[in-house]
From TrEMBL:
One of its GO terms (biological process) is exonucleolytic trimming to generate mature 3'-end of 5.8S rRNA from tricistronic rRNA transcript (SSU-rRNA, 5.8S rRNA, LSU-rRNA). Its cofactor is Mg(2+). One of its GO terms (molecular function) is metal ion binding. Residues 468-511 form the HRDC domain. It holds the Pfam family DNA_pol_A_exo1. The gene is Exosc10. Component of the RNA exosome complex. The catalytically inactive RNA exosome core complex (Exo-9) associates with the catalytic subunit EXOSC10/RRP6 (via its N-terminus). Exo-9 may associate with DIS3 to form the nucleolar exosome complex, or DIS3L to form the cytoplasmic exosome complex. The RNA exosome complex interacts with cofactors C1D/RRP47, MPHOSPH6/MPP6 and MTREX/MTR4. Interacts with MTREX; the interaction with MTREX mediates the association of MTREX with nuclear RNA exosomes. CDD domains: Rrp6p_like_exo (cd06147). This is Exosome complex component 10. Belongs to the exosome component 10/RRP6 family. PANTHER family: EXOSOME COMPONENT 10, POLYMYOSITIS/SCLERODERMA AUTOANTIGEN-RELATED. It is found in: Cytoplasm; Nucleus, Nucleolus; Nucleus, Nucleoplasm. Its main location: cytoplasm. The keyword Lipid biosynthesis does not apply.
Amino acid sequence: LAQHALGTVVAATKASNGLPQPGDEYDFYRSFPGFRAYCETQGDRLLHCMSKVMQYHGCRSHMKDRSKVTELEDKFDMLVDSNDVILERVGILLDEAAGVNKNQQPVLPAGLQPPQMIISSWNRKAGESHKRTQSETFRLLHAKNISRPQLKFREKIDNSNTPFVPKLFIKPNALKPLPEALTKSGRERKERPEDLDVPAALADFIHQQRTQQTEQDMFAHPYQYELEHFSPPDGVLKKPEPQMYRPIKETPCHFITTLDELVELNEKLMKCKEFALDLEHHSYRSFLGLTCLMQISTRTEDFIIDTLELRSDMNILNETFTDPAIVKVLHGADSDVEWLQKDFGLYLVNMFDTHQAARLLNLGRHSLDHLLKLYCNVDADKQYQLADWRIRPLPEEMIQYARDDTHYLLYIYDKVREALWERGNEQPTQLQIVWQRSKDICLKKYIKPLFSDVSYLELYRRQKKHLNTQQLAAFRLLFAWRDNMARQEDESTGYVLPNHMLLKIAEELPK
């Protein structure tokens, strides 16, 4: 049941991602009567299914009754209430399951040797007659008892309630020098002795001006000037000749775990015209999240970097990551750009996002899975998409899964550029649009989650529930306690206290 449900949810998510985006795109499709009628039919069908589920659990289920429910907010409230009831029952059943299975082996795959790790009955192979292909099997891999990688980091993770300051100390490929405030000497500088030689009022004014300028420099994007003045090299704006990827079995794959290996990789990348890049991130057992793995592929080799082991040394890759002559190819880079800044102080100049290319080409779907099938006839294996990437040593199957994300990406990069060239009537206009959109993504800055006295209101408004004064006060205090505990213990807020449980405690006000 769990396997079927997870597979269905994944399929539904993929299908929803293929729908027209809100705004002009949706309005355009909405102008066609056939599309409008289809949307209304499917909408009624979805509401009917939701009503059946809610009715089964004994909840209010008048989702389609327009005489009883006239406001969208009322429907949303009804849905939230039903979810609370269902999740509460799920929690009870999970507790029962945990009690029954309390003495079982801890959940930690040791090389994923048979028998496969069992999280739920859906992950147990019932027999030869019920075998499934790997791509049809989903695994919720979470290692409960691994050593926390944060304990080995040279620099302590900064979960303080202060704005994020770029981790950059040296700025390779600079057109504009790194602000003094970001250099090591600038961060360590104390009061300036020359202030002692001027009147106090003037010294205060000078200090205020310096502080204001320092804050602007410290919180600005270090490569904003370089990105704003970047133009794609002429060579990438011409019609490409797609270069077929090497068979994965014939391509060397290197697992990078030492500084010497990382330096050697950087030297290899310096000689490339382009390379593909991807990250594997973990957010459940860390307040800000951890980038656990980096995958890089050139035309001839694949590399997987243990970023937990080399976290403090990753900044040397800025030499290639910010080189405007080298194309960095990513797919859906919005989060990757922020994770690179947050964990390693890495920035991208000259990046091409194949997701943006797929959107501009109006492909039916924009996911990497779809592009792999369309251009490479490769079925993406998503069985490890929910894996805990902190696990060490990494099982061979997980390494293979991570490798697949970049191995084919340079060929896809060639194919989408070829399609964009043809779509632009053999002019580079469409290619320039994708590079501009990719550049805009590179300009994104990582913003640290900050707590304030009114932070709880955002979550409260999303819940669409009404709490009285006493309940709201409890909700506010619980929200503050959860944030403080998560920062102190370096855990996600969802791990410390999930949203639905926080709301339930505030509602019940246990004594």
